[in-house]
Model the fold of this input.
Amino acid sequence: MNCRICDGSELDLAVDLGQQPWCNHFLTREQVGKEPFYPLRVVLCRDCQAAQLDFTVRKEIMFGDHTYLSGVTRSLNDHFGRVAAAVDHRFFADRSGKAVLDIGSNDGTQLQHFRQLGYTILGVESSRTTAKLAQAAGIPTLNEFFNLEVARRLDRQFEVINAAGVFFHLEELHSVTEGIRELLKDDGVFVVQFLYMKRIMENLAFDQIYHEHLLYYNLQTIETLLRRHELSLFDAYLDPIHGGSIIGFVGHAGRRPVTDRLRQLRTEETQAQANELSTYHRFAQRLVSMKEENLAYLRRTRNAGKHIFGLGAPVKGNTLLNYFGIGPDLIECLVEKNPLRRGLISPGMHLPVVLESELTATPDVYYVLAWNFKREILANYQPLLERGVEFYFPVNPPE
Done:
């Protein structure tokens, strides 16, 4: 394969998580054991240092329909509200007739916040079920894969274009980026929100590597991509959401000055050698020890006769379950709030998903797969903590 960003042909293996199912492929009972497995490997481009998967599960398989809902978690909803308010206050508070486009708009949670600020809103969402939910909630949503062709059909421009947790998914990366450039007004701002690979390695958050995430951006690599399309990152900050995400602000090349805080983040990235192959290899080596420690804990706990439930059935949790080899012998079920996953079974390890509202028992231990919402979880489950239920976080980044 060639590099997804620069077309370079020399790519080195950085992290190998083995053969894994597509992690959002929650199964019905009839599908158990029939799900396909694919290589899950991160490679690093020698030319631009972009981290990326070397195998692509087609977008029509992964994103034509899925069960993820961004509005289920209060922490994420609050985050989206803060982002919308900050963007509007900083750039367009006094403008009338302003409009926002959200790419990968999911159930419309982010757009709801922009609408409250006076924006005309439009979402583009590839998942059929999710797009219908947004439309039913009154969020104008196109059920399509956004790309340059879709952009040209829209034939309009926007003050704000948002892409939250989607810009690293893109099979049609350059078509999408060019579409954004064409739809962005001259003084418009593209808000790109992405998992920060530097933080993934620091946190040992390897579960954020899965087939939907084709690219793993650091600042250096996303800036290489943007420059190719005459766009430029002019500001960014590191937000704690999802264990560490970059909220980046992008404009047309040369349109806005670069901020000091972006320069500082660039410096810190260089000093940490976050784009070096040796850093990825050290990360991969640490995962072996992490696996051994987690399995030892789970086996010790089960041998003591205790019951363990998984808390949350996030997509990333399936990377962890499959890489560690955690099946029903160690964890009895996954407890979830998202009603779209009711009665389904996790891919690969085949753990049943149970809605929290339908639980008939309380475990001794919750093994927290939705670790990125730690603060919200500990606040919500305080009564269980007081009763002695243990909450174990396999990935536990600093607050």
Observations:
- The CA atoms of residues 49 and 276 lie 7 Å apart.
